[in-house]
Amino acid sequence: MKELNRKLLRDLLHMKGQMLAVTAVVLCGIAVFVSMTNVKYSLEVSRSDYYSRYRFADLFMQCKRAPEFLRGKVSRIPGVATVSTRIQTDVTVDVPGLDEPATAHLVSLPDRGEPSLNGVYISSGRMPDPSRPEEVVVSKPFMKANRLQPGDHIGVVINGRWKRLQIVGVGLSPEYIYEVQPGAFFPDNRRFGVFWMNRKALESALDMSGAFNDMALTLAHGASEKEVIRQLDRIFARYGSLGAYGRDQQLSDRFISDEIRILGIEITVLPTIFLAVAIFLLNIVLRRLVSTQREQIAVLKAMGYSNEDIGLHVLGFALVPTVAGVMLGTGGGAWLGTQLLQLYGDVYNFPRLIYDFRMENALAAVLLSFGAAVGGALDAARKAVNLPPAEAMRPESPAIYKPGILDNPQIARRFSTPVRIIVRNIERHPFKSLLSVTMIALSIAILVVSRYTFDSVKRMSEVEFGSRHREDVTVIFNEAMPPSTAFSFASMKGVLDAEYYREEPVRLRFGSHSRRQTLKGLQKTDGLQRLTDSNDRLQNLPARGLLLTTTLADLLDVKAGDVLQVEFLQGERRSVEVPVAGTIDELLGLSAYLRIDELNRLAGDGGALSAALLKLDGSKRIALYERFKQTPGIAGVMMLQAMKKSFDEMIAKSMNTSTFILTAFACVLAFAMIYNGARITLSERVRELSSLRVLGMTKREIAVILLGEQAVFCIAAIPLGFAIGVVLSVLLAKALSSELYRMPLVFTPVNFLFAFAVMVTVAIVTGLIVGRRIHTLDLIAVLKTRE
After folding, report:
1. DSSP code string of 132-143
2. In which region does residue 162 sit, left (phi positive, over 0), alpha (psi from -120 to 50) or beta (all else)?
3. CB 633 within 8 Å of CB 627
4. Between vectors from CA 355 to CA 734 and to CA 53, what angle results, nearest 5°?
5. Cα–Cα distance between 38 and 49 in angstroms, integer?
6. Cα–Cα distance measured from residue 420 to residue 178, given in angstroms and rounded to the nearest whole number
7. Rounded to 5 degrees, what are φ and ψ at 155?
8. Is 113 exposed, middle or buried, given 0-12, 13-18 or 19+ CB atoms closer than 10 A?
9. Which residues cross the membrane (predicted)?
10. Which one in 39, 296, 536, 630 has a CA-CA gap of 20 to 30 Å to 688?
11. Residues 179, 139: contact at Cβ < 8 Å?
12. Which residues are within 8 A (CB) of 565 and not within 5 positions of it... i.e. 6 or more apart?
């Protein structure tokens, strides 16, 4: 076998360009698979470790105010393992160096010891001293964004009273891996943070002695979550409970769970494309190899080498570049995984991100790659094994072809000789030509998909921050205010326009379907807050009845005309029947809208308002911000443009990185296909092309014949690649969409121009590389060889 190994090495060096192209494709596919699988597993391990170490709860419940003695009653519910009660509220914050008011979510800590559930990781500083009510621990993202340090002071308005708090620690909690302000979907770490302070201090500030408004629980193994939730809702109905819910409805956990789910989808799609291309490349390269080495195979068999030896020798041509691709791809994937995990660390707040390189992933990569290698080489190896030595010593029988389109003399004279040769060769190998076009199209499709995700997220931002919301600030009230009080915001000097809305927590029921939801009553839909669908079209509120987002209607299995049972979870806790007037296809969240006067009527009270949307005079903003910081009754202020800027910065970094990676991999894919196609065409037709040169054709005409075929493939692949990219984008949008967000279908001209420009550039560079082979072609040596 030593002689066969030397032959294998010699032939691989002779075909180094083609083998390197195969290696590069395998490398990209394995790098994507290894990096994504390791990142997915690392996020799962990091989340599990975080939840376990800091005792993340299984169930959550908020209420208006409940006596502390109910904790014992809850602990006796079958299936409940641990119960933790807390006090929490939202307040406005005056941050040094920040003109706008910020919002803090205050969470109580036990006066002694660690929280039994939802613990706090202290990254620097210490926990608050129970004897010092002014001490707080502040979430790390807020501290970092505002460049605060332990020892700094910060002012807050709690229950209408101004307090000066001292920061003594920097913390994180599994409850806020994704830290966003209530009612928002995008983080604004500069203007929203979580503050932890001693319970007695918060009890005193909120007049909540002996009471709580937040509860967290863990369940015993095998306990029924639905039954425990039912018992909790029964016990706390009279205390203003908004309904208990599990982890799957906890906002932070839903975001990180969706991210892990998305990674699982990407692991399936991208490596499959690369390995499919690798199989095709190996197949056409090795089939050509067996065809050109017929005599060598015959000699080897005559010398006593068995069919197994010959078959393994041919498989070696596939396994060597695959082994190189696996080794480089695994190492590159491990490095790429660490970089991608850092990007996730910029969005999600973990005390530590555990990068876990799993050998199982590397083994799976090896198996996938070798499966692809064997799949690509099997047909060529079978052909070599089944080739009789006597027949192999003769030249291969010429193929029988039928006259083609341009073989008609009347048509042929209208085209040049190079064009006729190109068309004839494509006609004679239709299946091979179609596969070549398809493989090139896949690289274009990857480019389209990479730009689609960027454009889709950009459209979400434009709709949410541009068309849908036109206010400057949203002022959220601590408690629902009567209209007479809330309208005072419109009279503030510097407020140009004001709108108000009301939100009421309810439970929607239809048949066997039930959903805890917020009803939002709007004054109008064409002012500061507009109802726009995923296509940016303005929708109007019906005169009567509910307008549901399409996703919420699907979850409840309702359509226009159906009647929902609406159970109010606060106030008189009325239960009313309300018809569904229509649906709206929104991009973010689940919503149920109706007119504010209709909501007031259904609630059975005189009306109350939850928040104000304000348009401000730019010259008076600073004065208004200072006033908001001091105004009692404000739970928080959301700054629209500040949130947009924070979101754009976060998305720009992650999207630019992912687009760059996919573009680089798509370029490798396209280069490998075009280069291998041109080199194989050259090796198959080198004698023919050399004969044409001797007969008087110029090097330019020969180059046109050789590269023209690949140019035709590229031109044909562009529209096909666009179509495949659109289909993949549609499937991706459906796969990635969830209750939290829906990916809009956006295909901008820039997307297709970008894919076109990248493909043309790759084709030109490949053509220049292969063209050099034509200029250095040794005509005498080629023509001396036997057919």
Report:
1. -TTEEEEEHHHH
2. beta
3. no
4. 95
5. 16
6. 62
7. -105, 140
8. exposed
9. 20-39, 262-286, 310-337, 357-378, 434-454, 660-682, 703-732, 752-770
10. 296
11. yes
12. 508, 509, 510, 575, 576, 577
Angle subtended by helix axes 251-292 and 16-53, to nearest 10: 160
Beta bridge partners of 627: none
Strands (E), 596-738: 609-616, 634-639
Tokens describing residue 617: 């005079």
Q: Which residues of 497-518 are buried (b: 16+ CB within 10 A; e: fewer)?
A: ebbbbbbbbbbbbbeeeebbbb
pLDDT at 6: 80
DSSP string, 617-638: -GGGHHHHHHHHHH-TTEEEEE
DSSP state of 385: H
- On whether the CB atoms of residues 63 and 151 are closer than 8 A, the answer is no
The span from the CA of 711 to the CA of 699, in Å, is 17
How large is the angle between the packed helices 749-775 and 430-462, nearest 10 degrees?
140
Compute the residue count for the chain. 787
DSSP 287: H
Q: How confident is the model at residue 216 (pLDDT cuts 50, 70, 90)?
A: very high
Q: How far apart are CA 497 and CA 494, in angstroms?
A: 9
Burial class of residue 172 in the structure, from the number of CB atoms within 10 Å of its CB (0-12 exposed, 13-18 middle, 19+ buried): buried
Grouping H, G, I as helix, E, B as strand and the rest as coil, residue 610 is strand
Residue with tokens 């990407």, as numbered in its chain = 266
pLDDT of residue 398: 60
Residues with Cβ within 8 Å of residue 450, at least 6 apart in sequence: 658, 659, 662, 663, 666
Classify 53 as helix, strand or coil: helix
- 693: helix, strand or coil: helix
- End-to-end, the C-alpha distance of the chain in Å comes to 28
As a whole number, mean pLDDT of residues 117-129 equals: 92
Q: Which two tokens stand for residue 414?
A: 């209208």
In angstroms, the CA 427 to CA 655 distance is: 42
| Token couple for 676 | 């291998």
- Whole-angstrom distance, CA of residue 108 vs CA of residue 137: 10
Angle at 68 between CA 66 and CA 74, to 5 degrees: 85
Tokens read off for 291:
């065809």
Lowest mean pLDDT among 45-59, 165-179, 289-303, 310-324: 289-303
Dist. CA 655–CA 10, nearest whole Å: 44
CA 500 from chain centre, in angstroms, equals 34
- DSSP character at residue 469: B
Q: Per-residue confidence at 773, pLDDT binned at 50, 70, 90? A: low
Tens-place pLDDT, residues 519-552: 898 888 778 888 888 877 888 888 888 999 888 8
Q: Is 403 exposed, middle or buried (0-12, 13-18, 19+ CB in 10 A)?
A: exposed
The number of angstroms, rounded, from the C-alpha of 538 to the middle of its chain's C-alpha atoms is 28
Q: What secondary structure letter does DSSP report for 396?
A: P
Q: What is the DSSP-derived secondary structure letter of residue 238?
A: G
pLDDT of residue 270: 72
Going by C-alpha positions, the residue among 203, 236, 200, 199 that lies closest to residue 217 is 236
For residue 209, how many other CB atoms are within 10 A of its CB?
A: 10
Helix axes 699-736, 430-462, angle to 10 degrees: 50
According to DSSP, the β-strands at 634-639 and 546-549 are unpaired
- Cβ-proximal residues to 355 (8 Å cutoff; 6+ apart), any chain: 38, 42, 337, 338, 341
**H or E, element range at 479:** strand 473-481
pLDDT reported for residue 738: 77
- Asked if 166 and 47 touch (Cβ cutoff 8 Å), the reply is no
Q: Are 112 and 131 in contact (CB under 8 A)?
A: no
Average pLDDT score, the chain: 82
| Alpha-carbon distances, residue 636 vs 87, 182, 362, 476 (angstroms) | 17, 9, 49, 5
CB-CB contact of 490 with 498 (8 Å): yes
Predicted local confidence at residue 787, as pLDDT: 47
